[in-house]
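Moderator note: this is an archived Q&A kept for reference. The question asked for a predicted structure of one protein chain; the sequence and the answer are reproduced below.
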Amino acid sequence: MLRNPNTVLVAGSAIVVAAILAGCGGGSTKPNTTTSSPGSSANPATKFSLASVSGVGSVVADGKGRTVYILTSGGHSNVPCTDSSGCTGLWPDLPLPSGVSAATAGTGLKASLLGTKKLKDGETYPTYNGWLMYEYAGDSGPGQAKGQGMKSFGGTWYVLNASGDPVTSGGTSGGGRY
């Protein structure tokens, strides 16, 4: 029996999409820390540096060169993004790998502003000037800040400058509410 090639293509595409989604969902949104040795720059939470990003200037970036963000709500409040709210699916957190007690400051950052905070989940997370740091899933690589100024999960997301202050200019100016 001959099959319609379009039906086969659609069915095959649906299977591929289902397989991709199955591999992406259901688990932790935390980076895989088992393949990195302690202190390795392969884990984005172990080293932070300053990077130039068009539209926002020099900002804090993680060990993979990706722009990091902080969540504000009502001024300088450090709001944790939690799995229970679904937040870390869009704004992945950056826990330190097992056996690593601190992140390191790379080019352009002040080591004295880099710290840690232990959250209720028992994991330790790096901070810069007291801010918990996150990536944005909408940034596909280094040099991007598509989440800058986005309002979601009860606050506004900003990048940080070398002094550890939120950069409140540039970016999406209020779009992207979730």
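Archived answer notes: The chain has a mean pLDDT of 76.
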